[in-house]
Design goal:
The structure holds 2 protein chains of 2 kinds. Chain A is about 40% helix and about 25% strand. Chain A has helices at about 15-25, 50-55, 70-85; strands at about 1-5, 30-35, 45, 60-70. Classes of the chains: A alpha+beta, B alpha/beta.
Chain lengths: ~90, ~575
């Protein structure tokens, strides 16, 4: 399993467009992916656009992304790049 | 024989039997079940069909309506495929032992409520999408989707409360003689798409579905905005004759499609098209539009729940410019005011909206919004011959201020390394008497004029064109207005700039000869007026019309002028 933490610094948070790009990217991987917001116990499923949107991540929230599976390395790189892309 | 009134979308007649589009219901019965596996299978089958329907809608609307409308269906596909939504539906079926319809409804409400509780307005609106998708799946489960759009096997007139873009794409011109709806206005989706497809349509007919039954015979008279229900045989005969005449005229006009627009004495007259939606472009091109004289961009703002983004606008302007392949495309920046309901703009209601903060005045007030549009226009300007037109100018300071803002944006683009056409032409609508009178001052600041006759008449005669009590004042033949138009054209030419016209008068065959005589360079009109205008141009000589201008300017009343022009 790989885990990374990522702070949302974008003023608009993880709003609809980024949420759907993030979700579309996650769907490309076989690995099991979970997202926790601010160390909450509740896990969100990034392969579900509804789950990611309902997370309601705003500026300052810290996302913990856990990936387990054969393509975890590639997945983490990809998702990280997407989040960083939005945070410009 | 009963008749109903509505708003005719263009000019035409349709006679036929009615087919009513039933409002589809997503009602269902709440049932307990025993075979949960079978119920889960039922859901999966319905979900696959829903996905297939949406993919079809996506492809069809992308081709026939546009990228933007298609995106709605793309979003719906993502929801139909959503893992968590399916997971929750499965849990509901297995744990509660209830039917799939109920489970879909419950799961969709769960997510819709979650999204509605969030701060992001865009995400909150996705709650509608979830409910739409759930309703689609439920209709498939109950079999209610079978009568979504009625099967059209013989030519008919479709009557409906409203037609959605997704339903309009199913309508074929050979099978549908006409469309009549309860909802809608001249600028609604249905109206614009019907016009683009060349199908006679009357919208905004109150009480329509109460009065109509399937298979009733109706006559749609678009000119009068009238629907005649089960007409008597004399009326029917009368209208059949009118329809025949229209058909003969249409065939005759077809012959002008490939002709040049030249007067008998060899003067070329530019006939351009007006448009509000990119869906109208193919029709305009087919009818020989030599350019776009007015792209009304308001439609992009009034048909959605938030302002169109820079990228979205850029794509639309770029596509338009590319499709016109180097021909002139005059795009008018946002022209609205306090009389329009655009919730997200939060416009104040005004006592006198037509004398209030509208057109360029509003663009200055909502500068951030306007700058987005200008950026999109400038970026698109490298893909063809885009020209920018400013609406509702009344003093020269407005032109200068607008140009200064445009320069700011050009500098911005330059520093970002984004391409734009530095020499993009900028023109103004001349639609206030103030602007007409100082046309010489304004001409030295711009590249072209376009006369907006509708507002020019309204402001010159101080007459609200919608008020029937003073309708005697509102006339295209008003001598004050015609003198102003002559002044605008002459002044423009003295300063070496092009003068066009994009109001209704530009497509009026009674006035075209007069304006040709005045030397108007470009006439911009709706698709349906183009061929007839070309025919008119073909029959006159500019030299003779110059004499007509002299005569007309000596006449004293609108009525005298109208009668004189009709006698030509």
């Amino acid at each position: 399993m790989i885990e990374i933490k990522f702070e949302i610094t974008n003023n608009e948070g993880l709003h609809a467009r980024p949420a759907s790009e993030f979700s579309k990217a996650a769907m490309k991987y076989k690995s099991d992916i979970k997202v926790h917001k601010n160390d909450d116990e509740k896990a969100f499923n990034p392969k579900s656009i509804l789950s990611i949107m309902s997370m309601g991540a705003v500026k300052g929230d810290i996302l913990k992304i856990q990936i387990t599976g054969a393509d975890e390395e590639a997945a983490i790189e990809d998702l990280k790049a997407i989040l960083e892309g939005f945070d410009k | 024989m009963e008749h109903l009134l509505g708003t005719g979308v263009s000019k035409g007649i349709a006679i036929g039997s009615v087919l009513i589009k039933q409002e589809h219901t997503s009602d269902y019965k709440n049932k307990s079940i025993t075979d949960v596996e079978q119920e889960w299978e039922r859901f999966n089958t319905a979900r696959d069909s829903a996905k297939k329907q949406l993919e079809e809608l996506f492809n069809q609307s992308k081709q026939s309506i546009g990228e933007k409308e298609a995106q709605i269906f793309e979003a719906h596909i993502l929801i139909v495929e959503d893992q968590e939504l399916a997971e929750l539906i499965k849990t509901q079926i297995f744990n509660q032992k209830k039917n799939a319809e109920w489970a879909v409804h419950e799961a969709a409400e769960h997510f819709a409520a979650l999204l509605e509780s969030l701060g992001d307005e865009y995400i909150r609106e996705r709650a509608h999408d979830i409910r739409d998708v759930a309703a689609r799946i439920i209709r498939i489960l109950t079999g209610a989707d079978k009568h979504d759009l009625p099967e059209v096997d013989k030519p008919c007139i479709i009557a409906a409360k409203d037609l959605l873009p997704g339903e309009m794409v199913h309508i074929s011109k050979d099978k549908v003689l006409g469309i009549v709806t309860e909802a809608g206005s001249k600028t609604s989706h249905t109206a614009i798409l019907a016009k683009a497809m060349g199908i006679p349509a009357i919208v905004g007919v109150a009480g329509l579905l109460e009065k109509l039954n399937d298979s009733d015979t109706v006559i749609l008279d678009e000119v009068e905005g009238k629907i005649l229900i089960n007409p008597d045989s004399d009326t029917l005969k009368n209208y059949n004759r009118k329809l025949e005449l229209l058909e003969i005229k249409r065939k005759e006009l077809e012959g002008f499609k490939d002709k040049e627009s030249v007067t008998k004495d060899g003067v070329e007259v530019e006939l351009y098209g007006n448009m509000a939606s990119i869906a109208e472009l193919p029709g305009l091109i087919d009818n020989g539009a030599m350019g776009i004289g007015l792209f009304r961009t308001e439609f992009l703002y009034t048909t959605q729940t938030s302002a169109p983004s820079e990228e979205e606008q850029f794509q639309i302007y770029k596509q338009t410019a590319e499709k016109m392949a180097g021909k002139t495309v005059i795009i008018r920046t946002l022209d609205i005011g306090g009389d329009k309901e655009i919730p997200y703009l939060g416009l104040e209601k005004e006592e006198n909206p037509f004398l209030g903060c509208r057109g360029i005045r509003l663009c200055f007030e909502k500068q951030e919004l306007w700058k987005v549009q200008l950026r999109a226009l400038l970026r698109a300007s490298v893909y063809g011959n885009i020209q920018i037109m400013l609406p509702m100018i009344s003093v020269v300071e407005e032109v200068r201020r607008a140009k200064a803002i445009m320069d700011e944006i050009k500098a911005e683009l330059k520093s970002e390394g984004i391409e734009y056409n530095d020499g993009i032409e900028i023109g103004v609508m001349i639609e206030t008497p103030a602007a007409a009178i100082i046309a010489d001052v304004i001409a030295s600041e711009v590249d072209f004029f376009s006369i907006g006759t509708n507002d020019l008449i309204q402001y010159t005669t101080a007459c609200d064109r919608m008020n029937p009590r003073i309708s005697y004042l509102y006339s295209q033949f008003n001598p004050s207005v015609l003198r102003l138009i002559k002044h605008i054209i002459d002044t423009g030419h003295q300063h070496g700039i092009k003068v066009g016209m994009c109001g209704e008068a530009a497509g009026d065959v009674r006035l075209i000869p007069l304006f040709v005589g005045m030397g108007l360079d470009e006439f911009s009109m709706n698709t349906s007026a183009l061929l007839e205008a070309k025919k008119t141009v073909d029959q006159i000589s500019k030299q003779e019309m110059q004499k007509v201008v002299e005569d007309v300017l000596k006449l004293k009343t609108a009525q005298e002028i109208e009668e004189y022009l009709l006698s030509l």
